[in-house]
Amino acid sequence: MALKQRLGRSLSAPWLVVLNVLLCAAAVWANHQYQLFCEPVAWASAVLVVAMVPVITYNLFRERITKGRSLVFFLFGIAACICVYCVLFLGMMNWWIPFIVWVKPMAILGYLPHFILIQVLFHSFRSSDGRTRRKFFAMGVALCLVPSVVMAIWFNRNYTSVQAAIDDPAHGTSKVRPSYITERMLGMHFKYHMSFCMWDGWRPPIHDPFIVVAAWLNSPFIDSEAAKGFRWSFVNMSAAPFKDHMAKDDLEQRVAAYRIVFPGNPTRQTCSCAEEYGRVYMNDPLFR
Q1: How far is it, in rounded angstroms, from Cα 42 to Cα 56?
Q2: Is the pTM of this model over 0.70?
Q3: Dist. CA 238–CA 233, nearest whole Å
């Protein structure tokens, strides 16, 4: 009981806000330098900031909040989904961090989503008004789950045509309808980052959680050989020497198909996934 009380006091203490801010700042810097989730697309960056700021600063205003309480716990539900997504995306890295941290101390930041999630759950499911908190928390979770399922269905309906385009860019691309989802599907592995791996080469520089979740939800329903580009990182931590686990020929065909379907879109971005891989990425012949 004493341990539980001490933990509760720590999670309610004002100094935790300072720690949260410092850890989040360090995580942003580390992501820029080394790579964890690459550069989030605009909507993901906006959602991340809006949902996380109330969480990391909650102990500064939790006693004074009145009318905005429902909105705060709605955002907590979104923040919880973001944390769970990050944990799943890191996959087996969650188990390797205790061993890697002795070589690269910054690896401990891989546990930041776990730490934030503990705070979210603590604040959302404690005290006498927990029922009200849980209701708005659940609404925030639902807001994340519903569009994810919609994207997964959209992904599934376009999978056959997109895969045909990748298999034969010269002839198969005629059946691909340009859309948000097909642009993401064709851009996987060279433009959009799909899975975490410590040992491959440069990483695709953009991160869109919707395409990642859509691929995760569809992986059980797609033939294993044809779906080698749609792997869930939690079960695919192979040390492949290629971009985002893709073989060179597969990437070349994917880029060729992307250029045909989306001729106005650049294939190489103006920035690399992280500073560590910038020179290799910017000079890769794949984009020439």
Answers
A1: 21
A2: yes
A3: 9
